[in-house]
Design a protein that fits this description.
By secondary structure, the protein is α/β, with parallel strands linked by helices. The chain has two domains: 2-129 and 282-312, Quinone Oxidoreductase, Chain A, domain 1, CATH 3.90.180; 132-259, Rossmann fold. Helices cover 23% and strands 27% of the residues. It contains eight helices and 15 strands. It has helices at residues 41-48, 123-126, 130-143, 159-170, 184-189, 202-209, 265-276, 293-302, and strands at residues 2-5, 16-19, 29-39, 67-75, 88-92, 106-110, 114-116, 150-154, 174-179, 194-197, 214-219, 231-239, 252-255, 284-289, 308-312. Strands 3, 4, 5, 6, 7, 14 and 15 form a seven-stranded mixed sheet that branches. The protein is globular, with a radius of gyration of 19 Å.
């Protein structure tokens, strides 16, 4: 099978096509014929080598990608699942293990990491859901703000931020969000109660809307200590790149590691249901043939992409 991967870390140019053995599912696993894989910022960290310690000395090629949509074509022996060959599905993939990531014609993943594709979405759109939405879901669960509380979302125009806004609204929270001038309408359309201008001083604008401080921040823009002043005493901040504080004033810092819940089947099913119910919006910026993965990484690095770039593994 063909896969997009790398044997040395670096810029987008290190990505190339490899011929790899067809993976075989074991107990508890399913194999998926990939139709689409979305391109996420975490894939660029993977490619650059920023997280190479996670490979534990294994040799390449290393295959990135955490989000896939496709069709089940094999189920491991003794696997308890309702999935059947031919089912259209989506999966969250942990790319640092020996199986590699989602940028491949076939992938093998735990059955618990796979759910049916939302009936309202095609393969490219469906491939943009799980990693970012599950990260946002975990962030909200760690903050544990009760219905009626107030949260602020930074980086609200991004994939994580957009899902954070919509999931928080679904949880019955008041949502404050930031946006640049070109994205204000987009973020308001996602359902945020109030949208303020983004920037390093965004904490002041959040405080103007919540004078006692927000109960929690979902920090998609990775502002870290710059947004802490927006939080009330003993509130919380959910961070997506491992910042550990300190935050002071009894504020709890919650690092969010989506890999830890990649097999939380109930959470994944709920996200799928929320797409079908219209509570979550899938956003595709563009679909490129799989062989143009390097171009997708270049475009993502240039910035300004709204929605996700998607690789089409039925076209090369």
């Amino acid at each position: 099978m063909r896969a997009i991967g790398l044997t040395e870390f670096g810029g987008p140019e290190v990505l190339r096509v490899f011929e790899l053995p067809e993976p075989v599912p074991g107990k508890g696993e399913v194999r998926i014929r990939v139709h689409a894989a979305s391109v996420n910022p975490t894939d660029t960290l993977f490619r650059s080598g920023a997280l190479k310690a996670r490979f534990e000395g294994r040799s390449g090629p290393y295959v990135p990608g955490m989000d896939a949509a496709g069709v089940v074509d094999a189920i491991g022996p003794g696997t308890g699942t309702t999935l059947r060959p031919g089912d259209a599905v989506i999966a969250i993939v942990r790319p640092y293990g020996p199986r590699g990531g989602a940028y491949a014609e076939s992938i093998v993943v735990p059955a618990d990491s796979v759910v049916p594709r939302p009936s309202t979405a095609d393969f490219p759109a469906a491939s943009t859901l799980l990693m970012n939405a599950l990260t946002a879901r975990l962030a909200l669960d760690l903050l544990s703000v009760p219905a009626g509380g107030t949260v602020a979302v930074t980086g609200a125009a991004g994939a994580f931020g957009g899902y954070a806004v919509q999931l928080a609204m679904s949880d019955g929270l008041r949502v404050l969000a930031d946006a640049g001038p070109a994205d204000t309408q987009l973020v308001a359309g996602l359902g945020a109660d109030e949208v303020v201008a983004r920037g390093d001083d965004v904490a002041d604008r959040f405080r103007a809307l919540a004078p006692d401080g927000v109960d929690g921040v979902l920090d998609g823009a990775m502002l870290h200590e710059l947004v802490v002043p927006a939080i009330r005493d003993s509130g919380g901040i959910a961070v997506i790149r491992g910042w550990a504080g300190p935050a002071g004033r009894g504020i709890r810092v919650h690092p969010v590691w989506v890999n830890e819940v990649a097999t939380d089947h109930d959470r994944l099913l709920r996200l799928r249901e929320q797409v079908e119910a219209g509570e979550l919006t899938l956003r595709v910026a563009d679909v490129l043939p799989a062989g143009q993965a390097a171009e997708a990484h270049r475009r993502l690095a240039e910035g300004g992409v709204r929605g996700r770039l998607v690789l089409d593994f039925t076209a090369w």
